[in-house]
Design goal:
Two copies of one chain form a homodimer. Chain A has 328 residues and is of the alpha/beta class. Helices cover 43% and strands 16% of the residues of chain A. The first copy, chain A, is built from twelve helices and twelve strands. The first copy, chain A, has a six-stranded parallel β-sheet. In chain A, α1 packs across α2 and α5 crosses α12. Chains A and B meet through α4, α5, β2, α6 and α11 of A and α4, α5, β2, α6 and α11 of B. β2 of chain A pairs antiparallel with β2 of chain B. Chain A binds a DNA duplex (16 and 16 nucleotides) through α2 and α4.
Chain lengths: 328, 328
DNA sequence: CTGAAAGCGCTTACAG
DNA sequence: CTGAAAGCGCTTACAG
């Protein structure tokens, strides 16, 4: 904490006021005469005084910290999300305590960590939460919001894209283009995002009498690339491939290209997320744009309006299709 | 902080011991009889007691938090770095308070933020620091380490790749391949990384009588893409393009491809960083791999061994060249 | 091994 | 508008 921890007391001594007054000067809205305020501020600056947020939090019960947990390191989508969160939370006066989970599931350990530091809310992006962990958080009255995930079993807020309907629209689009031999490359199958996208997609096509070929991926580029490569090596040449996210679609796209299949002439490729790379000229991936900014805003909204306790809320946002070079 | 803040006092009451004893049970190495420890632990678990890190920090002067500041949102390199830092710092018992800077320079505001929360050290990856800010930090005895940057003027530690020599080796490699018409696409020119890579690269070639064409980029894909596109539209067809980082090289690569130039047959393309994408089949970018993990380890080492005050240290790591599909 | 007490740096009623 | 005092939840000498 430094060798030179100037305290409010030090400032008070020099400014010849009480420590309470120094505190008031640094408390927005507290009543201090203009004259006193100026004198104190001057001394504070000279001494390089910085109020101690820890001590303040201890008494106000407000830490202004929110915990953010992430897992996926490969998907740039989450990097963009992280940037947006820290930026927007800062604007609201919150800091973010960041945790990167290696495990599939957020462990008790990481949550304890958040609890110890008294974060006021927790945002979990792409990791899983056990109901036991959620219970503990509820017990401590810390609101949790799942971002880009949801879980009916869990008693927590959730903000995500309406994956099912988005996938349905993509299916309709593909069907309208005359595609009949269609592949879906999944993400991690235990994620709601992948499941919902698959459900919306296959259901629509099933109604039309089309059985979608499902390749079980894991949201990584490599797996999707290998799966698709193997698939076309078997002599198959689908009309369309829909990847559970952009990275997945990109993997499939590269495999198709490598296999000499021309996109979109022979095969249409669609992704999901609209990460920056998708718009790069070399790819020009058509995709479903998640309303990332709106999603972040909604999440923060949910966290800050935690007062009204009408149970966990689920917000589903629409997003929109972006037509680029991999679709016709 | 929750509606149910069980304190050590609460536990003490139920376990019929003093609050001091409860504290000892949660302090590694403190002397408590096995019998008491068990009883206290049992009660603590029943009550869901969680020591308050804020209160502890207030008295121990140890927050176990380090501040991490980042700026570049587009470069996946930093996403990987962030993952590595949180993972490794956690292993050492540290949490990371994350700040995403929008400004080119880290502002006083963000630093104050770190100071308020009493972080024990600060890591700055790709943002700039003013000497005024560094001075303030030194005044508070908080060690700062620049990661992947360095600045002679600034009194702070620094860990980075030996960019100059790496670029020199790349230049030698290219020269050895017979390249004579060579382009370097810079990153942001006010970064030490871009400057050093440029210096090492051009100096070597200058010695050989070759004047490198320098295209001034900004470390983004788009700029590099446009620059290269414009360059070749002017009728030029270089033997080799070296990008200040992978993203930059990828932008150039795509522009070359779009311009109908075959890589590596006509033009060799080399990047710097070895981000995951560079190994994707569609790109197969040859690049200089930064020893990312080592760099992170060294940084943490520097921060935790902050006791010996023999002035700021600069650590330069080597890294190595990775040959893929864009070089011969 | 254990308890009573002081103190970390703040905020916030309570008086004046 | 301002000061004295209590208290937030801990740790840590100091006694015993």
């Amino acid at each position: 904490m430094g060798k030179n921890p100037v305290s409010a007391m030090d400032v008070a001594r020099v400014a010849k006021v009480s420590q309470s007054t120094v505190s008031r000067v640094f408390t927005p809205g507290a009543s201090v005469s203009e004259k006193t305020r100026k004198r104190v501020m001057k001394v504070a600056e000279e001494l390089n005084y910085q109020p101690n947020a820890l001590a303040r939090s201890l008494i106000t019960k407000k830490t202004n910290m929110v915990g953010l947990a992430m897992k996926d390191i490969q998907n740039p989508f989450y990097h963009e999300v992280l940037g947006l969160f820290t930026k927007k939370l800062k604007a609201k006066g919150y800091s973010v305590l960041f945790v990167y989970t290696e495990n599939e599931e957020i462990q008790q350990e990481e949550i304890n960590h958040f609890l110890e530091y008294n974060v006021e809310a927790i945002i979990v992006t792409d990791a899983l939460l056990s109901s036991k962990v959620v219970a503990k958080l509820q017990n401590n009255a810390i609101p949790v919001t799942l971002f880009n995930r949801y879980d009916k079993e869990l008693q927590c807020n959730s903000v995500c894209c309406d994956n099912r309907n988005a996938a349905k629209e993509i299916a309709a689009y593909l069907y309208g283009k005359g595609c009949r031999d269609i592949v879906f490359v999944t993400g991690k199958i235990n994620t709601s995002t992948s499941r919902d996208r698959q459900k919306g997609f296959t259901e629509y096509l099933q109604d039309k009498g089309i059985e979608v070929t499902v390749l079980e991926g894991d949201y990584t580029y490599e797996t999707s690339f290998q799966l698709t490569k193997k698939f076309i090596a078997g002599g198959r040449k689908p009309d369309a491939v829909f990847g559970a996210n952009d990275i997945t679609a990109l993997g499939a796209l590269d495999a198709l290209k490598e296999g000499g299949i021309s996109v979109p002439a022979e095969t249409i490729v669609i992704g999901f997320d609209d990460i920056k790379m998708s718009s790069w000229p070399n790819y020009g991936l058509s995709t479903w744009a998640q309303p990332m900014e709106e999603m972040v805003d909604e999440t923060i909204q949910l966290l800050t309006a935690k007062q009204e306790n009408d149970g966990p809320q689920t917000v589903k946002l629409k997003g929109h299709f972006i037509h680029r070079k991999t679709s016709t």
